[in-house]
Design a protein that fits this description.
Radius of gyration: 23 Å
Largest sheet: 8 strands, mixed
Helix content: 10-25%
Shape: globular
Order of helices and strands: EEEEHHEEHEHEHEEEHHEEHHEEEEEEH
Distance between the termini: 38 Å
Number of domains: 3
Structural class: alpha/beta
């Protein structure tokens, strides 16, 4: 008699072009699987492992899934009623959830948002100084969950002193230092604050998707599954006071100093401002073929094509070769036979197959 198995509803299979991933959104882990196994596991019903004809392959898969607690055994089909399906709908009543500002932001901005509930505020500063601490004092009284600091220039000499001062601000979740070459540890945890160190400049970091920007948890998955995980609910005020909907956007929706509170709120709640935030990754070329699409935070500016959205700059990951740009044998989209334009995605299958086989030495 065949055993009956259900999939842990918090372990979600996601298919990519070459391979699939099981997102373990509670334990914040993931596992690669073949796309053929995705088709078997992508069900809320009893899993039909008999679709795998190779008995050894089937046994190995079941053993692996049981070991990682991705599936569990039930005694009979009636028991399935005890386990509800995981809802993937996004319940977020607030349209504004994330704010990015510079440490020299006009103080009037905080009058505009003082009645808003924010998930987080990100602050970009050239260094840790009195101006930054003055800004933190204003933010400490707001109703927000957390603060992220992005410090463009790391000061090793005064680090211990500033670290103690930063720890006095209870809302700070992480401090990210750039131009911080030579650090023995890339991440330190001190008084419940993460201190992260990056060798590159912030101007480079902000434009590029890297593996450290992959985020795997329940909240991020639901956001990325339904909307755009970077642009949704975000407002950015640049150093000239321009109101934008993302860190890398050129288009300005107006100058902060020229707006009243009502005009500012009407602007960021407008359909035009929120358009990018409502884009689904499945409606975006290349992203729709990527197995990482529900865990990435992609700050590139999408462009509207004839049928789908697309990007004019490439991501750091090529899903058609399953390679990151810092990995050996990486090739960009064009060179491996994939052409992206406003009209769609054209794939030279013969060229792609050649490069894929060469890359993976198949």
């Amino acid at each position: 008699m065949n055993k009956l198995f259900l999939r842990n509803q918090l372990c979600i299979p996601v298919m990519g072009y070459n391979r699939a991933i099981i997102y373990d959104i509670i334990r914040k882990d993931y596992f690669f699987i073949p796309n053929a196994h995705y088709a078997i596991l992508d069900t809320n019903d009893v899993i039909n492992f008999n679709k795998i004809t190779d008995q050894e392959e089937k046994a190995e898969l079941i053993d692996f899934l049981l070991k990682e607690e991705i599936i569990f055994e039930i005694a009979d089909r009636k028991q399935k009623k005890r386990f509800k399906s995981f809802s993937r709908s996004l319940d977020r009543p607030n349209l504004l959830t994330n704010v990015i500002v510079h440490s020299d932001i006009d103080p009037v901005f905080f009058d505009f948002i003082k009645d808003e509930y924010l998930l987080n505020v990100s602050i970009i500063a050239p260094q840790i100084d009195d101006r930054l601490f003055s800004l933190l004092a204003k933010i400490d009284i707001l109703e927000i969950d957390s603060i992220y600091l992005y410090i463009e220039n790391f000061d090793q000499e005064n680090f211990e002193t500033t670290r103690q001062l930063i720890s006095n601000h209870r809302l700070i979740f992480s401090v990210n230092f750039f131009n911080a070459a030579g650090q023995a540890q890339t991440t330190q945890l001190h008084q419940n604050i993460y201190f992260n160190f990056f060798e590159e400049e912030f101007s480079i970091y902000k434009t590029k998707l890297t593996t450290d920007k992959l985020s795997l948890n329940n909240e991020h998955f639901l956001e990325a599954y339904n909307v755009h995980s970077y642009y949704h609910g975000k407002v950015y005020i640049d150093q000239e006071g321009n109101v934008k909907n993302g860190l890398n956007n050129i288009y300005s929706f107006g100058k902060l100093k020229m707006l009243t509170k009502d005009l500012f709120l009407n602007t960021i709640y407008s359909e035009k401002f929120r358009e990018l935030g409502n884009i689904n990754k499945n409606d975006t070329l290349v992203c729709c073929d990527c197995e990482f699409r529900y865990m990435c935070v992609d700050s590139r500016v999408p462009v509207k094509g004839d049928e789908k959205w697309y990007h004019q700059t490439e991501c750091a990951y090529n899903p058609y070769l399953s390679k990151w740009d810092d990995e050996e044998n990486y090739i960009n989209l064009k060179d491996c036979g994939v052409t992206i334009s406003s009209t769609g995605c054209a794939i030279d299958q013969q060229k792609l197959s050649y490069h894929f086989n060469k890359t993976w030495a198949v």
